[in-house]
Amino acid sequence: MYNLVLLAARPPDWTHERFIAWWRGDHAELTYRLPGLRAWRHTEIDQALEPRSEGWDGLSVLSFDSPEDLKAALASQEWADAVAQVGDMKGRRIAVMGHEAEMFTTEAGTA
């Protein structure tokens, strides 16, 4: 998989709850439409491990088969619509992309 990873903080005038509800609701409706999207995982951040990690509300991992598929999604009207919906919300984000490597997993029913 090739992933787009987004770490985001809400706009200053929004509550954490409002931001997560928007991200998983109205914004998700546009995200689901991205061409080539294979998987999407979202984490609501409820605490930071240490002070230098504070200030973030959520993390999204959008998965595609290849860098080319992600590039096509970023060039699509669906991506443009999602960006337009965000508009000038004035939240913060970090957006990075790269190849995924599964490092560990357990099978259901084993411990």
TrEMBL record:
Protein name: EthD family reductase
Pfam family, one: EthD
InterPro entries registered for this protein in UniProt: Dimeric_a/b-barrel, EthD_dom
Organism domain of life: Bacteria
Domain EthD: residue ranges: 12-83
